[in-house]
Structure prediction request, 412 residues.
Amino acid sequence: MIPLPLGLAMIAAAVKKAGHLVELVDLMDEEDDRQTIQKAISTFRPDVIGISVRNIDDQNMEKPRFLLDKVKRVVDDCRRVSSVPIVLGGAGYSIFPESALEYLGADMGIQGEGEEAFPALLDRLQRGVALRGLPGLYLRGRGLQGRRKFVKILDEVPFPDISFPRGPASGEEISMPVQTSRGCPMNCSYCSTPTIEGHAFRKRSPAAAVEEISRHVEAGVKTFHFVDNVFNLSLSHAKELCTRLIDRNLKISWRCILYPGRIDDELADLLARAGCVEASLGFESGCERILRAMNKNFSLQAVRRASAALKRAGVWHMGFLLFGGPGETKESSEQSLAFADSLDLDALKITIGIRIYPFTTLEKVAREEGVISAGDDLLFPRFYCAEEVKDWLKETVGARVADRPSWMIEAE
Ligand code: B12
Prediction:
């Protein structure tokens, strides 16, 4: 799936609002990055270059792909033709603000949301004043300059630059990303989202989100992807959003990621009527003990109810299992497979081995158990997979998937 650069489009809108000129370059769809970069820089002559780093790797334990070497080449290509400051940002970057900056050789980076921080940085650079104290700013070799701040009122963030993202030149149908909330108060043992977006849950007003969508619809977009970590962290917010979409009758279809603990029949029905054609249901395990070890706040019964409600409403939904975390045994794995089998899922995606992210409980456990060494900053992907099931999982899960056409192993 091609994720359009929503973050960059939001930064662009904020930078424009602050009175600067901005030129956006999407390297996802480019064959010759160097030429594209050279052309963009020589025509636009920027004072600052910002680069959005979405992915560090593909989280695949079996054959991990480290993705920063291409970004390093992009940084080098910018350097070759320009001496202005190069600033990094983006979800992947935000998990590793110091080590990614060091590895990529850019000048500075902003951890987390950039709509306030990036224009504030531009302002100081323009005035030639010291950068010390700037919230969320990292300077290469000099660390964090000021405590991170989070946007409190999301409706004050301008809509993304609507002319961008545009999607692949091939014209193939893509899903337009839309964000309706930020932050996650949960503490799932392995998850990097609080590091990226913070713990404080903040919502856009459903009216504003629907207005943004309707502008895309006017421009011809019909398919959307809600990119909130979970669409229904606030059940009432999710319901209001769906109701407004139904009232506007925009004739769109969309995908979202659902939290299994907060799905009732009414939400399932609203999702279907509002155009939700695909939902990801990330329950991750079918064993209560493992759910608790992952610090999940829902029960297997809730997952069962959620899947049944989605089925009844006709929302195609895919379950997720994440195998190999601390405490995983053959027995818990078998329970998970049997549980998945017993649900009304339309598809199941299985991941074996968990990518270890900084500042997580999983990192702590992995360090205590000596899975990762003291000096390892985790930028190069490291995985946790309980010894007891390491080899067994691949075989057992592989055999199970072979019999079930709607099941797949991640990144196979
Ligand atoms: C939704 C989502 C998806 C959707 C995308 C749907 C779509 N149409 O876009 C789907 C399910 C398809 C997906 C797929 C994958 N994803 Co994903 N995804 C996310 C998620 C939850 C949100 C991303 C998002 O759109 N956020 C909203 C936008 C507005 O935020 P943003 O881009 O981060 O931008 C903000 C800031 O970062 C910053 N910023 C951004 N750019 C810049 C630039 C500058 C200069 C500055 C200053 C600031 C700045 O300001 C922006 C506005 O506030 C994140 C987790 C998270 N919470 O971020 C994972 C995440 C990005 N995904 C991740 C991964 C690994 C993947 C996959 C590789 C998984 C896989 N094995 O297939 C694929 C890769 C797809 C691809 N080709 O790139 C990882 C990346 C970490 C890593 N290890 O690399 C994340 C962080 C989740 C995690 N595990 O921690 N993903």
Observations:
- The radius of gyration is 22 Å.
